[in-house]
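Hi V.,

You were right to ask for the full record rather than a summary. Here it is.
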Amino acid sequence: MVGVRSAARGDVPLIYDLIVELAEYERAPEKVTGTPELLAAALFGERPSAEALIAERDGEPVGFALFHGTFSTWECRPGIWLEDLYVPVCHRRGGIGRALLSELARLTVERGCARLEWHALDWNTPALDFYVQLHAARLSEWELHRLDGEALRRVAGLADAVSTTKRSTNLRARAEISEGFDGVWTRRR
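Predicted structure:
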C-alpha cells in the first residue's frame, strides 16, 4: 500500500538526495547547484516558496513531488505548478507516481485552483506515456523561456538604466492619477 504525506523538515535530506538522483536520471547532475540548506529554507523557512509530498510504501520513502503556486490571469484563479515528481527506478511500476499525482490533484481542487501544470522532457517517454494515460493535455503551442545567471542580471540591469528624470516624471504622473481617482483610472489634466 502506498501512502502520501506532506513533507516535514526532517525530510529535507531525503528530498535533496532524490533531487540529485532525478538530475542524474535527467542527464544533468551538474545543474544541481542548490543545497539542503536552501531547500530547507524554501520548504520550511519564514516565507516558504514551495511544498513537497512524500510517497511511502510500508514506511519506506519511495518518491516525492515538489510544487508551488501559480496564477492564471485569464481565469483570475491560482494554480499549482508541479516542479518535480520523482520515483526511483527500483520503485517504479507500483502506482507511486499515480498516488503522488493524485494527491497533488486533490490538493489543487481542495485549494480552489484552476489547474495543475508541469513540464516533462521530450525524451522521457515513460513519463509522457503516463501523462497520456491520465488524459493530461499536452500544450505543444507553448514554449518555455528562462532567464537565469548572467542573462537575468543583464535584464535586471535594464531597470537601473531608467533615468532619474524619467522615474521622477513617472512618480509625478502616478500622484496626479491617484489624486484624481474617482473609481475609474483617469489622468487629471
